[in-house]
Write a structure and sequence with these properties.
3-stranded antiparallel β-sheet; about 300 residues; 2 domains; 11 strands; 3-stranded mixed β-sheet
Amino acid sequence: MATSLDIDAIVWPLVIGAALVIFQRPLRSLLGSLQITKLTIPDVVSAEFQVPSQEPLDQNILGRLRDPNTVSANISDRVGWDLAKRLEDSTPLNHAIIDLGEGKEWLTSRLYIAALLLDRMRSLQALVFVATDQDVPRHFVGWAEPSKVRWALAHRYKWLEEAFSSVYESVVKNSDTDIKSAGELAPARDTVAVHPATTLLRVFLEKIQTTERDQTTANEEEWESISNGTPLFEHGEWLCASKLKRFLGDALTTSCEELTVLYGKSHPEQARIILCHRTPYVAVTRDAGRFDKLIDRQPLLEEVAHNCLRES
């Protein structure tokens, strides 16, 4: 018996379904960021939405990790407790803003451990880098995935990875430490006084800090004084925008959209501009290139795919 099949009705759902599987990871929050109220076919994208501000990671935790005064000697006190509580927070994180300022705000060692801990403990999706450029603060430099920042730093500064590897091994061997399914460190029992992530940070800093000036002379340019009353040196370098671009290379996404361009277009045109980017996130800048927000394209892509499937 001959059977008449509508090939399009079969093929398109399969194609779109496969695309959803393939791009599941890069697809995730423009409509936690872009709030779609209407999306229709055949134009595929005909949306009325607004782009609200999206809160980045609480800057207090970055301030703790960045501050040279946060040293191994004081991690186990109130600073350590505060950090542990913030690292334990299970609230999903979209991005964190790393302000390099004029190049004396972040040590490479602090960016390394911050990227690693926030990726592992808080599932952070993106690090947005800004800097002061020609007296313009928060000038957009680019964004990158935390894991790529960590490995780029590990490639350039091998002692950072060596220090972390040895410290991580010792922390994991501790019977009071548990590893969750997503890789987060956690206390194995409620009675543990010190969170293992705090211990990891404290011992890591011990590994890369010294009070002995003679130990730094061989590679003096790779050690920075972080003295806060007593002589103390950390194995790292101050990070500026140009140095960041050199060691991150293609892992740093520098493309962006201007806020005036987005708000000057119709709603469908705004959606198409966002969808035309090939990256999971789209940075939006204000006047003079100042960073405004980071938009996640995933929800818009999911909405488009959902409507295609429904119409098919």
